[in-house]
């Protein structure tokens, strides 16, 4: 599954906002989830996600005009892909929102 979230921010600002909102990433996943994140490179955040009895690994790539979330869904979750993709798209603005100080 690949979900693109468009933005009009500088890449530095996108990274800053993603890092600031990391604690709430699980809240943006339908049904809630346990999420741990890492930044193996400047423009890639990896996420280890535990949801619906499944463990997933996702990548979030920061691009000039969009943030792209990529995850391979196991067959047991393939049927919910449209729901997950829709939720990510609708919640993407919150994930990229300015952090609350």
What does this structure look like?
- There is one protein chain.
- The chain has 101 residues and is α+β, with helices and mostly antiparallel strands.
- The protein has two helices and five strands.
- The chain has helices at 11-20, 81-95; strands spanning 2-6, 34-41, 44-51, 54-62, 66-71.
- The chain has a five-stranded antiparallel β-sheet.
- The protein is globular.
- The termini are far apart.
CATH topology: TATA-Binding Protein
Secondary-structure element string:
EHEEEEH
- Portion in strands: 35-45%
Write down the oligomeric state.
single chain
Pairing-aware structural class of the strands and helices?
alpha+beta
User: What is the CATH class name?
Assistant: Alpha Beta
Strand order of the largest sheet: 1-5-4-3-2
How does the major sheet shape up?
5 strands, antiparallel
What integer value in Å does the Rg equal? 13 Å
Q: How many separate structural domains?
A: 1
Can you tell me the overall shape?
A: globular
SSE layout and pairings?
Blueprint: E1 2-6, H1 11-20, E2 34-41, E3 44-51, E4 54-62, E5 66-71, H2 81-95
Antiparallel strand pairs: 1-5, 2-3, 3-4, 4-5
Brief overview:
This is Polyhydroxyalkanoic acid system family protein. This protein is an alpha+beta fold and 101 residues long.
């Amino acid at each position: 599954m690949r979900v693109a979230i468009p933005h009009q921010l500088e890449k530095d600002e996108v990274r800053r906002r993603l890092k600031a909102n990391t604690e709430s990433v699980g809240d943006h996943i339908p049904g809630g989830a346990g999420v741990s994140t890492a930044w193996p490179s400047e423009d890639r955040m990896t996420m280890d996600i535990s949801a619906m009895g499944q463990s997933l690994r996702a990548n979030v790539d920061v691009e000039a005009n969009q943030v792209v979330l990529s995850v391979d869904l196991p067959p047991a979750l393939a049927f919910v892909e449209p729901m997950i993709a829709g939720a990510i798209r609708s919640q993407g603005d919150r994930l990229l929102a300015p952090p609350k100080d």
